[in-house]
Amino acid sequence: MSPTGIFFIALDNPGSRVQVCSAPAKAASELCCHSVRWEQRGPLPPAPPRASWPACIKSRATPDTNLLPGKVVLAHFAQGCGRRGNPRGSPSSHASQASWCLEQQGKSERVTKQPQQFASDNYAGICPEAWAAMEAANNGYAPAYGEDDWTQRASDAFRKLFDSECEVFFAFNGTAANSLALAALCQSFHSVICSSSAHVETDECGAPEFFSNGSKLLVATTSDGKLTPRAIREVATSRSDIHFPKPRVVTITQPTETGQVYSIDEIRAISATCRALGLKLHMDGARFAQACAYLGCDPADITWRAGVDVLCFGGTKNGMAVGEAILFFDRALAQDFDYRCKQAGQLASKMRFLAAPWVGMLESGAWLRNAAHANGCAARLAAAIRDLPEVEPMFPVEANAVFLRAPAALLDGLRARGWSFYTFIGGGARFMFAWDADPARVDALVADIRAAGLAVADTAVAA
Ligand SMILES: Cc1ncc(COP(=O)(O)O)c(C=O)c1O
């Protein structure tokens, strides 16, 4: 497929003729400018270094003094239509390819113009910083299987962020990251202690057991998803005979599946219990950034400094397309982990495209900005419905999730007003906010919750 490009363009004429500032007019005319997609969401990232511009632009590029923050927007162009092979199922002539590009643009706009939903933070697209880094990586050639500069840079960015010489690996998704990390800590006869609502227990299709060749999950029943030292001790000491799988690891989810954040002290207390019982501590950090944003702490304070051995740091739910990082703070535990990833189909051949978005996220600070924004939207919803008698938050709202207990008729009313949400945790409505959650849309949800609540109250009075 013809590559797409991100270029920095002047904001003088948005929507009509555009002036490409990072390249002179001739190069601009070779782009399919009619398929431009405007994007101006959140803070703009810095212009990518010239070395990363596509060759057709670079060769004609002139320095541009107009590239000032605030004067530029990101524009996504279909570039070089008809010159580098056809998109699958697309026509071959330049003109018809251009119209194919337009048609695709129209289709994607129809999808993105659907009103925003908060059923899952996986519904969101890719944030500009991750996208720009991916685009920059899409330039020429690079060694495969993680031997490239992007992978090195992303790994170093993690080491800097955590102030640790940790071992860093990348996997495509959270299920693989968790499962392989736990498998690295266990032998097949070991067991992993987790909360009853842990994603590894409820939503990974047995992958942790599968990848560890049978290590058993030992589930501690928790009312709110949080593990405690007491619950860990109870499970770990329940049996010690040869017939029972030997406890070896504790896994906690930070923030929990119910949107609560373990404090630094809580993690320290859990890790002290783990050490006393000879257990390793793994953290499922699918939304780790949201926990850091909530606590306002240094990432090291809730990981290795508090006794966490391995962290799975999620990118997908915070503005990336795919990609989770696995950080081994105890480097010895990472021995042969690269082979484990390869065997599980998690060693990306074009690793730079998994790593580059992390560079964009970590070096620009978007990882924390995005998370803070998502958390802020959850707090906004929670605060705005606090006075409603029919609706009750099921858990403290600390990260980017809000769980609402409400009468079935109210939830039906919300669905009838066009809102999507899941109720798989405790029957309440779950709303998840992503990096791009629109506060105006949050307010629209609040208005509809109020309207649905009033309708329920009116029906009760009439009856
Ligand atoms: C707590 C938690 N851990 C891990 C994951 C990763 O899942 P996936 O394999 O879908 O990326 C998720 C995704 O919803 C999650 O909520």
TrEMBL record:
It is an enzyme of class 4 (lyase). GO terms for molecular function: lyase activity. It holds the Pfam family Beta_elim_lyase. SUPFAM superfamilies: PLP-dependent transferases (SSF53383). This is Low specificity L-threonine aldolase. Belongs to the threonine aldolase family. Residues 117-404 form the Aromatic amino acid beta-eliminating lyase/threonine aldolase domain. Its EC number is 4.1.2.48. Its cofactor is pyridoxal 5'-phosphate.
